[in-house]
């Protein structure tokens, strides 16, 4: 995913540049109407993609897969899917930040618009922390736990009850469960915080709609 990492880096730098030097890109009241419309479209599409993706993976798809797939198969699938998932969220959040900062330059923005930019930046920060830090650590810890479980003859069942049962009499598995649970918990917390930041922004956008 080297190409996507480079693309994300470029978009992130663009977002930072728009926030701190909006005049360079012609941001402000004199911006051409077509550019303003394009920025609004980019913001809306990027936000909607991030919101829908996070909603599905966090509250629907992930739960269905956990309840129906053998645990190791589920973990291996998540290990392939989550780097792409957080890459998509990070790119979308960066585009949303750049577009919103262009439409609402900091020097001209109202307090509520500055708060909204802060929420979008928070979502970007949490998604990047997952992409760069927590997800790689979680995947590495998962692989180590899978190895221990394979040696114990478990992991092909659906659900985690067998793991908990064996961990009661196996200190090595119990210790690994604790480490995995801590890292996975931090990853889940960052994911929920990013989703919450997007949820707050969705309320702001809803207030701007006129039917």
Summarize the structure.
This protein has about 210 residues and is mainly α. The chain contains six helices and no strands. α3 packs antiparallel against α4, α4 runs antiparallel to α6 and α5 packs antiparallel against α6.
What keyword list fits this structure?
6 helices; 211 residues; mainly alpha; single chain
- How many β-strands, per DSSP? 0
Helix content: over 70%
| Order of SSEs | HHHHHH
Average predicted local confidence, pLDDT: 88
**Which term fits the overall shape?**
elongated
Strand content bin: under 5%
What class would the helix/strand composition place it in? Answer: mainly alpha
Instruction: State Rg.
Output: 21 Å
Main location: membrane
GO cellular component, one term: membrane
Transmembrane segments: 48-70, 82-103, 115-139, 186-206
Subcellular location: Membrane
Walkthrough of the structure:
The protein has helices at 2-20, 33-68, 71-103, 111-152, 161-167, 171-206. Helix 3 packs antiparallel against helix 4. It is built from six helices and no strands. The chain has 211 residues and is mainly alpha-helical. 82% of the residues lie in helices and 0% in strands. It is found in: Membrane. This is TMEM205-like domain-containing protein. The chain crosses the membrane at residues 48-70, 82-103, 115-139, 186-206. Residues 45-147 form the TMEM205-like domain.
């Amino acid at each position: 995913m080297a190409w996507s990492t480079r693309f994300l880096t470029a978009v992130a730098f663009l977002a930072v540049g728009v926030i701190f030097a909006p005049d360079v890109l012609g941001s402000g009241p004199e911006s051409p109407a077509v550019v303003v419309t394009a920025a609004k479209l980019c913001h809306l599409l990027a936000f909607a993609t991030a919101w829908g993706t996070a909603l599905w993976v966090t509250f629907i798809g992930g739960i269905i897969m956990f309840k129906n797939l053998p645990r190791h198969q589920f973990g291996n699938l998540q290990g392939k899917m989550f780097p792409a998932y957080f890459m998509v969220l990070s790119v979308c959040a960066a585009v949303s930040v750049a577009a919103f900062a262009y439409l609402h330059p900091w020097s001209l923005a109202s307090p509520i618009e500055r708060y909204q930019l802060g929420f979008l930046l928070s979502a970007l920060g949490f998604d990047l922390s997952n992409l760069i830090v927590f997800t790689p650590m979680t995947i590495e810890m998962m692989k180590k736990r899978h190895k221990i479980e394979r040696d114990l003859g478990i992991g092909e069942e659906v659900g985690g009850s067998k793991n908990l049962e064996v961990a009661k009499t196996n200190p090595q598995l119990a210790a690994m469960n604790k480490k995995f649970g801590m890292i996975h918990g931090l990853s889940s917390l960052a994911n929920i915080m990013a989703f919450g930041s997007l949820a707050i922004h969705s309320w702001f956008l809803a207030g701007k709609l006129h039917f």
